[in-house]
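User: Can you help me understand a structure? I only have the sequence.
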Amino acid sequence: MHCPECAFANAEGANYCQKCGAFLSEAAAQEADTTAAYQLDETGELKPVDIEEVSYQRRILHGKIDILRAELVNRLRKKHEAGESAISGADVQQLTDILSGKAMPGDDTAG
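Assistant: Let's start by predicting it. Here is the structure, written out as tokens:
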């Protein structure tokens, strides 16, 4: 199923676009009302969760992944141009800090 907003090819039956988070169709929005999602609580019991909240969290995660991917490509390009090794442990730690919100891209004070 292709997204009407960004044309991303999503899995058949998806309610939201995996790339931009848009509703894929009015029918998909109606399916969301009948779809149930659950998570384990602290006692190990299944409890229902709001599909819209799960979708929102997924969009946030995809955004963070996109930021991380762009930062990694930028770092690899700079290192390649400078003739350095591809990526170091410090780079991995800084990218982890960016993803966890401890540092911003380009902030060399992290780690």
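Now, to help you interpret it: The chain has two domains: 1-35, 50-100. The first helix runs from residue 26 to 34. Let me know which part you'd like to focus on.
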